[in-house]
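Action item from last meeting closed. Structure (236 res):
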């Protein structure tokens, strides 16, 4: 008898449940997004030059909100004299049902055909002595495109989580039976070109942690709460 790994079994059951919820939701018609026009204002809260990092490029969502599945996307590429380039991506959705959910890194890269290698979670130390857990993975774009080591977490009203499948089920249930919850995604990508050796992976992990620490130590209390503690609608 073939023994199915616990994680594969769990993810399979999650996908089945999500399918059932999608079918159930179809009986209620196409949902209208809650608070579509709300913005967090990521561009104003993120420092331009945290520590020894400098901005290389910035990309913010400037299309009409009715064309966005989520409310706000903010991407900035930083460069460091020792660590190289690391990108920060922030996403906010006021309504996390499937049509409007975040771009979950592990799911989105797999769907588009990238090679994804998950790593054990990493602990990030904050300036007040607390620690948060970040999901870690490596992805390689198909056809020889970009390669990066990625760290990410989701900020919800209950706090920080890294479990994509659990979050998808929770938000689907919330959307089916009550008003959907808002959520923020914090994501760092450290890019590389050569083969990813163990030492190179460690260096990229350290680059991500350093940038996160530099940003966290320079943002104000509102931004610190939204990115590193919990997220509520009143924080907007």
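Sequence:
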């Amino acid at each position: 008898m073939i023994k199915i790994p616990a994680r594969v079994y769990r993810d399979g059951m999650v996908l089945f449940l999500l399918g059932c919820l999608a079918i159930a939701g179809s009986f209620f018609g196409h949902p209208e997004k809650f608070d579509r026009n709300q913005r967090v204002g990521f561009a104003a809260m993120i420092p331009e030059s945290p520590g020894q990092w400098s901005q290389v490029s910035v990309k913010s969502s400037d299309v009409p909100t009715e064309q966005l599945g989520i409310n706000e996307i903010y991407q900035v590429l930083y460069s460091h004299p020792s660590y190289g380039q690391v990108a920060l991506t922030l996403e906010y959705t006021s309504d996390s049902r499937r049509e409007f959910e975040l771009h979950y890194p592990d799911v989105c890269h797999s769907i588009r055909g990238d090679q994804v290698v998950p790593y054990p979670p990493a602990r990030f130390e904050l300036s007040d002595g607390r620690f948060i857990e970040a999901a870690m993975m490596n992805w390689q774009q198909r056809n020889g495109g970009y390669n990066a080591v990625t760290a990410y977490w989701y900020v919800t009203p209950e706090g920080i989580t890294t479990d994509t499948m659990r979050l998808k089920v929770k938000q689907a249930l919330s959307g089916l039976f009550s008003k959907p919850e808002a959520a923020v995604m914090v994501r760092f990508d450290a890019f590389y070109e050569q083969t990813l050796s163990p030492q190179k992976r460690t260096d990229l992990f350290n680059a991500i942690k350093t940038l996160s620490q530099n940003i966290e130590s320079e943002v104000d209390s509102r931004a610190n709460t939204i990115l590193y503690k919990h997220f509520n609608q009143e924080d907007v």
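Note appended to the action item: The chain has one domain: 32-235.
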